[in-house]
Protein backbone atom coordinates (compact mmCIF):
# COMPACT_ATOMS: atom_id res chain seq x y z
CA UNK A 1 0.00 0.00 0.00
CA UNK A 2 2.84 2.32 0.94
CA UNK A 3 4.63 1.58 -2.36
CA UNK A 4 1.45 2.37 -4.31
CA UNK A 5 1.12 5.71 -2.51
CA UNK A 6 4.72 6.62 -3.31
CA UNK A 7 4.23 5.61 -6.95
CA UNK A 8 1.04 7.66 -7.22
CA UNK A 9 2.79 10.68 -5.72
CA UNK A 10 5.66 10.31 -8.18
CA UNK A 11 3.24 10.18 -11.11
CA UNK A 12 1.42 13.27 -9.84
CA UNK A 13 4.67 15.21 -9.43
CA UNK A 14 5.80 14.21 -12.92
CA UNK A 15 2.52 15.46 -14.35
CA UNK A 16 2.91 18.75 -12.50
CA UNK A 17 6.44 19.26 -13.86
CA UNK A 18 5.32 18.41 -17.40
CA UNK A 19 2.42 20.85 -17.20
CA UNK A 20 4.69 23.50 -15.71
CA UNK A 21 7.14 22.97 -18.54
CA UNK A 22 4.40 23.30 -21.13
CA UNK A 23 3.12 26.43 -19.45
CA UNK A 24 6.62 27.92 -19.37
CA UNK A 25 7.20 27.12 -23.02
CA UNK A 26 3.90 28.71 -23.98
CA UNK A 27 4.65 31.79 -21.90
CA UNK A 28 8.10 32.39 -23.39
CA UNK A 29 7.63 34.75 -26.31
CA UNK A 30 3.91 34.04 -26.25
CA UNK A 31 2.85 37.19 -28.10
CA UNK A 32 -0.22 36.28 -30.13
CA UNK A 33 -0.14 36.43 -33.90
CA UNK A 34 -0.77 39.98 -35.02
CA UNK A 35 0.46 41.42 -31.73
CA UNK A 36 3.74 43.07 -30.75
CA UNK A 37 5.72 43.18 -27.53
CA UNK A 38 7.87 46.23 -26.85
CA UNK A 39 11.19 44.76 -25.72
CA UNK A 40 13.77 47.54 -26.07
CA UNK A 41 12.14 50.97 -26.40
CA UNK A 42 11.70 52.99 -23.22
CA UNK A 43 9.81 56.00 -24.59
CA UNK A 44 6.71 54.20 -25.88
CA UNK A 45 4.63 51.12 -25.15
CA UNK A 46 1.92 48.99 -26.75
CA UNK A 47 -0.64 46.94 -24.80
CA UNK A 48 -3.48 44.75 -26.00
CA UNK A 49 -6.80 45.02 -24.18
CA UNK A 50 -10.05 43.11 -24.66
CA UNK A 51 -12.19 43.33 -27.82
CA UNK A 52 -9.19 44.02 -30.06
CA UNK A 53 -8.54 47.39 -28.42
CA UNK A 54 -4.91 48.57 -28.39
CA UNK A 55 -3.46 50.98 -25.84
CA UNK A 56 -0.46 53.00 -27.02
CA UNK A 57 1.67 55.18 -24.75
CA UNK A 58 3.70 57.71 -26.72
CA UNK A 59 6.86 59.72 -26.11
CA UNK A 60 5.10 62.23 -23.88
CA UNK A 61 3.45 59.50 -21.79
CA UNK A 62 0.13 60.25 -23.49
CA UNK A 63 -2.24 57.32 -23.84
CA UNK A 64 -4.13 56.56 -27.03
CA UNK A 65 -6.79 53.89 -27.46
CA UNK A 66 -7.15 52.34 -30.91
CA UNK A 67 -10.74 51.10 -30.89
CA UNK A 68 -12.04 48.86 -33.72
CA UNK A 69 -15.21 49.98 -35.47
CA UNK A 70 -18.30 48.87 -33.60
CA UNK A 71 -16.49 48.71 -30.25
CA UNK A 72 -16.48 51.19 -27.38
CA UNK A 73 -13.57 52.54 -25.35
CA UNK A 74 -13.32 50.76 -21.98
CA UNK A 75 -13.83 52.49 -18.65
CA UNK A 76 -10.80 53.78 -16.79
CA UNK A 77 -9.20 55.57 -19.73
CA UNK A 78 -11.10 58.85 -19.63
CA UNK A 79 -7.93 60.89 -20.24
CA UNK A 80 -6.84 58.79 -23.20
CA UNK A 81 -7.04 59.97 -26.79
CA UNK A 82 -9.39 57.69 -28.74
CA UNK A 83 -9.00 56.72 -32.39
CA UNK A 84 -11.97 54.81 -33.78
CA UNK A 85 -11.20 52.50 -36.66
CA UNK A 86 -8.13 52.70 -38.87
CA UNK A 87 -6.42 55.98 -39.76
CA UNK A 88 -6.32 56.46 -43.53
CA UNK A 89 -4.90 59.99 -43.94
CA UNK A 90 -1.68 60.25 -41.95
CA UNK A 91 0.75 63.13 -41.50
CA UNK A 92 4.46 62.35 -40.99
CA UNK A 93 6.41 65.07 -39.19
CA UNK A 94 9.94 63.62 -39.36
CA UNK A 95 12.32 62.18 -41.92
CA UNK A 96 12.61 59.04 -39.81
CA UNK A 97 8.89 58.24 -39.90
CA UNK A 98 8.87 57.20 -43.54
CA UNK A 99 11.68 54.73 -42.92
CA UNK A 100 9.72 52.99 -40.17
CA UNK A 101 6.74 52.68 -42.50
CA UNK A 102 8.92 51.25 -45.27
CA UNK A 103 9.33 48.08 -43.20
CA UNK A 104 5.56 47.57 -43.19
CA UNK A 105 5.20 47.50 -46.98
CA UNK A 106 4.90 49.87 -49.92
CA UNK A 107 1.11 49.93 -49.76
CA UNK A 108 1.29 51.60 -46.35
CA UNK A 109 2.44 54.80 -48.05
CA UNK A 110 -1.01 55.03 -49.65
CA UNK A 111 -2.23 56.02 -46.17
CA UNK A 112 0.15 59.00 -45.99
CA UNK A 113 -1.62 62.29 -46.75
CA UNK A 114 1.30 64.63 -46.22
CA UNK A 115 4.78 65.28 -44.87
CA UNK A 116 6.79 68.17 -43.47
CA UNK A 117 10.35 67.33 -44.38
CA UNK A 118 10.36 66.80 -48.13
CA UNK A 119 9.66 68.64 -51.31
CA UNK A 120 9.11 67.06 -54.71
CA UNK A 121 12.29 65.50 -56.05
CA UNK A 122 14.21 65.94 -52.80
CA UNK A 123 13.42 62.78 -50.89
CA UNK A 124 15.60 59.70 -50.65
CA UNK A 125 12.63 57.40 -50.04
CA UNK A 126 11.13 56.56 -53.40
CA UNK A 127 7.73 55.64 -51.97
CA UNK A 128 7.30 59.21 -50.71
CA UNK A 129 8.87 60.97 -53.67
CA UNK A 130 6.86 59.18 -56.36
CA UNK A 131 3.58 59.89 -54.56
CA UNK A 132 4.51 63.55 -54.12
CA UNK A 133 5.15 63.81 -57.83
CA UNK A 134 1.76 62.19 -58.45
CA UNK A 135 0.14 64.61 -56.00
CA UNK A 136 -1.23 61.99 -53.60
CA UNK A 137 1.14 63.06 -50.82
CA UNK A 138 1.25 66.77 -50.02
CA UNK A 139 4.01 68.94 -48.60
CA UNK A 140 2.50 70.72 -45.59
CA UNK A 141 5.46 73.00 -44.91
CA UNK A 142 8.22 72.84 -42.34
CA UNK A 143 7.40 71.90 -38.76
CA UNK A 144 8.10 75.43 -37.57
CA UNK A 145 5.25 76.74 -39.76
CA UNK A 146 2.91 73.93 -40.77
CA UNK A 147 0.01 74.66 -43.11
CA UNK A 148 -2.78 73.40 -40.85
CA UNK A 149 -5.47 74.50 -43.30
CA UNK A 150 -3.95 72.22 -45.92
CA UNK A 151 -3.84 69.39 -43.39
CA UNK A 152 -7.53 69.84 -42.64
CA UNK A 153 -8.38 70.02 -46.34
CA UNK A 154 -6.51 66.74 -46.89
CA UNK A 155 -8.57 65.10 -44.14
CA UNK A 156 -5.62 64.22 -41.91
CA UNK A 157 -6.96 61.87 -39.22
CA UNK A 158 -3.67 61.06 -37.45
CA UNK A 159 -0.43 63.01 -37.10
CA UNK A 160 2.96 61.69 -36.02
CA UNK A 161 5.15 64.46 -34.62
CA UNK A 162 8.64 64.45 -33.15
CA UNK A 163 9.22 65.24 -29.47
CA UNK A 164 11.24 68.27 -30.58
CA UNK A 165 8.16 69.72 -32.33
CA UNK A 166 5.70 69.00 -29.52
CA UNK A 167 5.73 72.52 -28.06
CA UNK A 168 5.32 74.04 -31.51
CA UNK A 169 2.48 71.96 -32.94
CA UNK A 170 0.67 69.86 -30.31
CA UNK A 171 -1.67 72.59 -29.09
CA UNK A 172 -2.84 73.50 -32.59
CA UNK A 173 -3.47 69.86 -33.47
CA UNK A 174 -5.60 69.55 -30.34
CA UNK A 175 -7.57 72.68 -31.27
CA UNK A 176 -8.28 71.21 -34.70
CA UNK A 177 -9.27 67.85 -33.26
CA UNK A 178 -6.52 65.97 -35.11
CA UNK A 179 -5.27 63.00 -33.05
CA UNK A 180 -1.49 62.93 -32.77
CA UNK A 181 1.29 60.67 -31.53
CA UNK A 182 4.57 61.98 -30.15
CA UNK A 183 7.61 60.08 -31.39
CA UNK A 184 10.59 60.21 -28.98
CA UNK A 185 12.69 57.58 -30.73
CA UNK A 186 15.63 60.00 -30.87
CA UNK A 187 15.81 59.88 -27.07
CA UNK A 188 16.14 56.11 -26.88
CA UNK A 189 19.26 54.75 -25.20
CA UNK A 190 19.86 51.74 -27.45
CA UNK A 191 20.03 50.99 -31.15
CA UNK A 192 17.30 48.38 -30.86
CA UNK A 193 15.20 50.79 -28.83
CA UNK A 194 15.28 53.29 -31.68
CA UNK A 195 14.61 50.68 -34.34
CA UNK A 196 11.65 49.26 -32.44
CA UNK A 197 9.50 52.28 -33.31
CA UNK A 198 8.45 50.41 -36.41
CA UNK A 199 6.07 48.71 -33.97
CA UNK A 200 4.58 52.07 -32.99
CA UNK A 201 3.61 52.72 -36.61
CA UNK A 202 2.46 49.13 -37.09
CA UNK A 203 0.06 49.53 -34.16
CA UNK A 204 -1.84 52.15 -36.18
CA UNK A 205 -1.19 50.96 -39.73
CA UNK A 206 -0.92 47.17 -39.51
CA UNK A 207 1.57 44.41 -40.40
CA UNK A 208 2.80 43.56 -36.91
CA UNK A 209 4.50 40.48 -38.35
CA UNK A 210 6.91 42.60 -40.40
CA UNK A 211 7.68 44.82 -37.41
CA UNK A 212 8.41 41.81 -35.21
CA UNK A 213 10.59 40.19 -37.85
CA UNK A 214 12.59 43.38 -38.38
CA UNK A 215 13.57 43.79 -34.73
CA UNK A 216 14.32 40.07 -34.28
CA UNK A 217 16.67 40.09 -37.28
CA UNK A 218 18.33 43.31 -36.13
CA UNK A 219 18.98 41.86 -32.68
CA UNK A 220 20.74 38.88 -34.28
CA UNK A 221 22.82 41.11 -36.57
CA UNK A 222 23.97 43.35 -33.72
CA UNK A 223 24.87 40.33 -31.61
CA UNK A 224 27.08 39.04 -34.42
CA UNK A 225 28.81 42.41 -34.79
CA UNK A 226 29.51 42.63 -31.09
CA UNK A 227 30.93 39.11 -31.08
CA UNK A 228 33.19 39.91 -34.06
CA UNK A 229 34.90 42.80 -32.23
CA UNK A 230 35.42 41.05 -28.90
CA UNK A 231 39.02 41.33 -27.74
CA UNK A 232 40.04 43.87 -30.40
CA UNK A 233 41.68 47.19 -29.58
CA UNK A 234 39.23 50.06 -29.17
CA UNK A 235 40.11 53.04 -31.39
CA UNK A 236 39.25 56.43 -29.93
CA UNK A 237 36.42 58.23 -31.73
CA UNK A 238 34.48 61.48 -31.50
CA UNK A 239 31.40 62.57 -33.38
CA UNK A 240 29.38 65.73 -33.66
CA UNK A 241 27.72 68.40 -35.76
CA UNK A 242 28.68 72.07 -36.04
CA UNK A 243 25.64 73.99 -34.89
CA UNK A 244 25.10 77.60 -33.84
CA UNK A 245 28.72 78.33 -32.98
CA UNK A 246 29.23 75.11 -31.03
CA UNK A 247 29.41 71.36 -31.58
CA UNK A 248 26.37 69.21 -30.89
CA UNK A 249 27.60 65.83 -29.62
CA UNK A 250 25.75 62.68 -28.63
CA UNK A 251 25.72 61.79 -24.96
CA UNK A 252 27.11 58.53 -23.67
CA UNK A 253 23.60 57.43 -22.69
CA UNK A 254 22.19 57.94 -26.19
CA UNK A 255 21.66 55.24 -28.79
CA UNK A 256 24.86 56.52 -30.42
CA UNK A 257 26.70 55.64 -27.22
CA UNK A 258 25.23 52.15 -27.48
CA UNK A 259 26.30 51.94 -31.11
CA UNK A 260 29.91 52.82 -30.30
CA UNK A 261 29.87 50.21 -27.57
CA UNK A 262 28.57 47.55 -29.97
CA UNK A 263 31.28 48.22 -32.58
CA UNK A 264 34.11 48.24 -30.04
CA UNK A 265 35.03 51.93 -30.17
CA UNK A 266 36.19 54.14 -27.31
CA UNK A 267 33.75 57.04 -27.57
CA UNK A 268 35.44 60.03 -25.98
CA UNK A 269 32.14 61.60 -24.90
CA UNK A 270 30.89 58.42 -23.25
CA UNK A 271 30.88 60.13 -19.84
CA UNK A 272 28.85 63.11 -21.06
CA UNK A 273 25.39 62.87 -19.56
CA UNK A 274 22.23 64.96 -19.58
CA UNK A 275 18.77 64.70 -18.04
CA UNK A 276 17.43 63.32 -21.34
CA UNK A 277 19.62 60.98 -23.39
CA UNK A 278 20.31 62.54 -26.75
CA UNK A 279 22.73 65.34 -27.50
CA UNK A 280 24.44 68.26 -25.81
CA UNK A 281 26.45 71.24 -27.02
CA UNK A 282 30.16 71.69 -26.30
CA UNK A 283 32.56 74.45 -27.30
CA UNK A 284 34.93 74.19 -30.24
CA UNK A 285 37.79 74.18 -27.72
CA UNK A 286 36.33 71.24 -25.82
CA UNK A 287 35.71 69.27 -29.00
CA UNK A 288 39.25 70.03 -30.17
CA UNK A 289 40.71 68.82 -26.87
CA UNK A 290 38.84 65.53 -27.13
CA UNK A 291 39.22 65.21 -30.89
CA UNK A 292 42.97 65.74 -30.80
CA UNK A 293 43.34 62.29 -29.25
CA UNK A 294 40.80 60.61 -31.56
CA UNK A 295 41.73 58.12 -34.25
CA UNK A 296 38.49 58.73 -36.14
CA UNK A 297 36.16 61.75 -36.34
CA UNK A 298 32.52 61.31 -37.34
CA UNK A 299 30.54 64.20 -38.79
CA UNK A 300 26.81 63.95 -38.04
CA UNK A 301 24.95 66.55 -40.14
CA UNK A 302 21.20 66.94 -40.16
CA UNK A 303 19.58 67.04 -43.57
CA UNK A 304 20.87 66.06 -46.98
CA UNK A 305 24.38 67.50 -46.88
CA UNK A 306 27.46 66.38 -48.77
CA UNK A 307 31.00 67.75 -48.51
CA UNK A 308 33.74 68.07 -51.10
CA UNK A 309 36.39 68.22 -48.37
CA UNK A 310 36.81 68.62 -44.60
CA UNK A 311 37.22 72.36 -45.00
CA UNK A 312 33.53 72.60 -45.92
CA UNK A 313 32.59 70.92 -42.64
CA UNK A 314 34.67 73.18 -40.43
CA UNK A 315 34.38 76.54 -42.23
CA UNK A 316 33.23 78.25 -39.02
CA UNK A 317 35.68 76.40 -36.80
CA UNK A 318 39.18 76.33 -38.36
CA UNK A 319 40.59 75.15 -35.02
CA UNK A 320 39.03 71.74 -35.65
CA UNK A 321 40.95 71.41 -38.91
CA UNK A 322 44.04 70.95 -36.75
CA UNK A 323 42.82 67.70 -35.19
CA UNK A 324 45.19 64.90 -36.31
CA UNK A 325 42.39 62.66 -37.63
CA UNK A 326 41.13 65.56 -39.75
CA UNK A 327 44.59 66.36 -41.12
CA UNK A 328 45.28 62.73 -42.00
CA UNK A 329 41.91 62.20 -43.67
CA UNK A 330 40.08 59.97 -41.21
CA UNK A 331 36.81 61.90 -41.14
CA UNK A 332 33.58 60.09 -41.96
CA UNK A 333 30.23 61.76 -42.58
CA UNK A 334 26.61 60.66 -42.89
CA UNK A 335 25.30 59.96 -46.35
CA UNK A 336 22.31 62.20 -47.19
CA UNK A 337 19.82 59.39 -46.52
CA UNK A 338 21.21 58.47 -43.07
CA UNK A 339 18.20 59.70 -41.07
CA UNK A 340 15.82 58.16 -43.58
CA UNK A 341 17.41 54.77 -42.95
CA UNK A 342 16.79 54.21 -39.24
CA UNK A 343 14.82 51.12 -40.21
CA UNK A 344 18.24 49.78 -41.25
CA UNK A 345 20.13 51.02 -38.22
CA UNK A 346 21.69 47.58 -37.70
CA UNK A 347 23.24 47.93 -41.18
CA UNK A 348 24.45 51.42 -40.27
CA UNK A 349 26.07 49.94 -37.16
CA UNK A 350 27.81 47.44 -39.44
CA UNK A 351 29.19 50.42 -41.40
CA UNK A 352 30.59 51.89 -38.19
CA UNK A 353 32.11 48.53 -37.29
CA UNK A 354 33.84 48.36 -40.69
CA UNK A 355 35.19 51.89 -40.22
CA UNK A 356 36.44 51.26 -36.69
CA UNK A 357 37.77 47.74 -37.39
CA UNK A 358 38.40 47.51 -41.15
CA UNK A 359 40.46 44.32 -40.90
CA UNK A 360 37.63 42.50 -39.13
CA UNK A 361 35.04 43.53 -41.73
CA UNK A 362 37.02 43.41 -44.98
CA UNK A 363 34.07 42.13 -47.01
CA UNK A 364 31.61 44.74 -45.76
CA UNK A 365 30.60 47.45 -48.23
CA UNK A 366 30.07 50.77 -46.44
CA UNK A 367 26.82 52.32 -47.64
CA UNK A 368 25.49 54.89 -45.16
CA UNK A 369 28.75 56.68 -44.36
CA UNK A 370 31.28 58.37 -46.64
CA UNK A 371 34.91 59.29 -46.08
CA UNK A 372 35.47 63.03 -46.55
CA UNK A 373 38.58 64.04 -48.53
CA UNK A 374 41.14 66.33 -46.90
CA UNK A 375 41.32 68.53 -50.01
UniProtKB/TrEMBL annotation:
Pfam families named among the record's database cross-references: Peripla_BP_2
Gene3D superfamilies named in the record: Nitrogenase molybdenum iron protein domain
Recorded superkingdom: Bacteria
Leader sequence segment: 1-20
Sorted UniProt keywords: Signal
UniProt family annotation: Belongs to the bacterial solute-binding protein 8 family.
Name the UniProt record assigns to this protein: Fe/B12 periplasmic-binding domain-containing protein
Native species: Acetobacterium bakii
Biological classification of the source: Bacteria, Bacillati, Bacillota, Clostridia, Eubacteriales
Amino acid sequence: MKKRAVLALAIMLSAVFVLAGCSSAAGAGSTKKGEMEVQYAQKMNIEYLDDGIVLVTDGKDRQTLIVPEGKEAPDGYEEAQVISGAAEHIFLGSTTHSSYIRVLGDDMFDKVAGVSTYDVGKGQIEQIDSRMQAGTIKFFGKNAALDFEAMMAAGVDLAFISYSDYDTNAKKLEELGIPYIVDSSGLETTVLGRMEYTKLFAAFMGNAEAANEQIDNAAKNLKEIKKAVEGLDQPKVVGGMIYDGQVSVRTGGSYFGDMYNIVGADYLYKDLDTAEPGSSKVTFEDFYAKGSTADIVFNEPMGKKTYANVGEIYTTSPLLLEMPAVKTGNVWSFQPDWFQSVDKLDQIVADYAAIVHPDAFKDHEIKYMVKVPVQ
